[in-house]
Amino acid sequence: MKKILITGSNGLLGQKLCEKLLSKNYFVIATSRGQDRINFSHPNYTFVVLDITNFDQLKNAFEKHLPDVIINTAAMTNVDACELNPYDCLMQNTKSVEMMVTILESLQTTEYTPHFIHLSTDFIFDGTKKMLTEDDLPNPLSVYANSKLESEKIIQRSSLKKWAIVRTILVYGVAKDMSRTNIVLWVKNSLEQNKTISIVTDQYRTPTLAEDLADGCILIAENEATGIFNIGGKDFMSIYELACKVADFFHLDKTLIKPSLSTEIQQPAKRPPVTGLDISKAQKILGYNPHSFEEGLAIVAKQLAHKN
Q1: Residue 216 belongs to domain with CATH number
Q2: Is 213 strand, coil or helix?
Q3: Which of 13, 48, 54, 169 is the 20 to 30 A CA-CA neighbour of 202?
């Protein structure tokens, strides 16, 4: 039975990965800084408290479990918080990866070749191209973006025999006790409370359902695929259009959504205006097949109904 270690198992993607991997008969080592939010009672599931910025904790976890696959979802992803706290961002997004890679390089032998799968972001680009391929040249605009690009470079320079970088974009979905919301849930909750929200019309993305992202990561692990893969949604839209689609789907008042420009919203970190991920490589090599945005909203609605 393959052992797969997940960092950031309490997060949205981490939770989806744990659920899906257990249903596929993998042994899952879930790790997170806080206490276990999932609390699975399953013979193939174990939880380890792990701070990814602590070298000794990482070393102990990797040496003890010798996972076949490591999926690194843990990161500081609040773009504005990263801009305001560059040291924390560097530690969590770059130095942690450097430590993981160093430890895995020391453990790697001819018999043991761990597959390191690392999550990255569309934000490493400057937003001047509509649909980005894996070969496009990055140009980060923020502290967060730079920290993620540096982590990619660490992996690419390493002596690890098996690694993959997953670039994803605007992830949404439902999970247990989430510490952070996401665009879809935020829009839905705000409109349900009759709040007026300002939404940018000049930023475009290909929003990604968390389940699809988890499936993409698992396909990489199962195919032992290496290199860089774009794993995103299939529909390209503005954030304003996204918000309107959420309002329509959940029958909420669209007039509460006020169109605005990025320059009108005061945010510490600069965002790339236009980023869509071209997923044709993942479709061709991995058989990746994400849901449409409307199908994704239907899955979210079903999970929210089940939660309540």
Answers
A1: 3.40.50.720
A2: helix
A3: 13
